[in-house]
Amino acid sequence: MGKDNKSKKYRITSDSMGKMKVPSSALYGAQTQRAVDNFPISGIKFNYDFISAVVIIKRSAAIVNLKLKLINKVRSEAIVKACDKLLTDKPTDQFPIDIFQTGSGTSTNMNVNEVLASIANTFIKDKANIIHPNDHINMGQSSNDVIPTAIHISSLIAVENNLIPSLIKLESAISVKVKEFNKVLKIGRTHLQDATPMTLGQEFSGYQSIIKNSLNQINQTKKLLSSLAQGGTAVGTGINTHKDFGVLVAKEISKFTKIKFVKTKNHFEAQSSQNQAVAFSGSLKTLAIGLNKIANDIRWLGSGPRSGLGELTIPPVQPGSSIMPGKVNPVICESMIQVCSQVIANDTAINLGGLGSVFELNLMLPLIAHNMLFSINILSNSTNVFVDKLLINIRSNSDKCEGYIEGSLAMCTSLVPEIGYDKAAQIAYEAFKKGKTIREVLKENKILSDKKIEKLLDPKLMIKPK
After folding, report:
1. 335: annotated active-site residue
2. Catalytic residue among 321, 341, 375, 396
3. Exposed/middle/buried for residue 72 (C-beta within 10 Å: 0-12, 13-18, 19+)
4. CATH dotted code for 408-461
5. Where are the domains of the chain?
6. Which pLDDT value is given to residue 466?
7. What integer is the mean pLDDT of 213-225?
8. For this structure, is 321 an active site residue?
9. Is the pLDDT reported for residue 2 higher than 60?
10. Which CATH number fits domain 145-397: 1.10.10.10, 1.20.120.1460, 1.50.10.140, 1.20.200.10?
């Protein structure tokens, strides 16, 4: 301890509970250090996008409190400068608190308050205007409305700036493949068994629709995130804040982020539950399930190259094996599938977090915030990688696709309107037992004329209603 003091690695600071030893390089104070000491749990810190959202709230509050004549211009401008510095520099080391902390996120709110006060005070020349973490940075606020507000702000910013653009990009890339594969005939599959013919373009059109529908759902549910709890303070009553604070701060946040936010219609709901976050997370889960289907289908369709389905040729991006030379694996698909599994797990965590709503406050806010941003970020990144590293360079193997059609027993489906289900089934069983095609059995038994057989077994006539 003596050596630490001599080298000045620490400084002594205090809060309402007493003195604390804080690293000399730290901009935070005693309350943050207590949280660091109390919660050495996972080593997982808040994504800086979330910290930035809290800073945006503080910045907006300083401007609004000046308009409401609750803080002077010197302090307001110093706080705004401090906020801008944090938003630009992003000093992650100044926000060391584990996400598994107090359920309200008070520790992180105070962490931001303390860091901002330290920076803001470097712009203060008159001691009479010294800025206090609680009295000035946190003026008109409570952790109980700041953290729910930050969840909505950080999530919606990430959705607008990252997730939605990545999904539009994906939908566009798939649409190109729909056209490219429009005339590639192949066999459909149900239950992993041969089904009737279709085109590869039709198959990809299904993928395109999955993304369109998910995008529509996200665009609908994201509206829930535009409603902010700010202004409700401790339990929703708005104690210790101005009656106009909530409306004005939502307008200021909107102005700064260029995203429309509004004050919640009911602070008691906004602070006591997290149903809106739970609902939006459900949209991310639905997207993940759709993306998993697309990635897994492409993985199977590209299996081989000699002993698999081989209908698609997946672009090689890295060696696939440490022992088998020349092996190339569908690693981009595998990465996407893992991301989807993680998002589904995150949604479960958020659902459980929603159950943490007790009386006037949800007590699992950090858990919800972390998992929500984690899901949005990995979905956005994975989608971009999926397009850039795989989708745009994927190719069809037309010969392989069409080669499966003639040998499929499901070709007998087109015979049903002509000879009936039972007789068509008998032909399929005979073809299977004898190792022959449907066409060969029909001709061998002279069930139909050659001209009729050619027409009924033309796969081009099987890909749409008559």
Report:
1. no
2. 321
3. middle
4. 1.10.40.30
5. 26-139, 145-397, 408-461
6. 81
7. 98
8. yes
9. no
10. 1.20.200.10
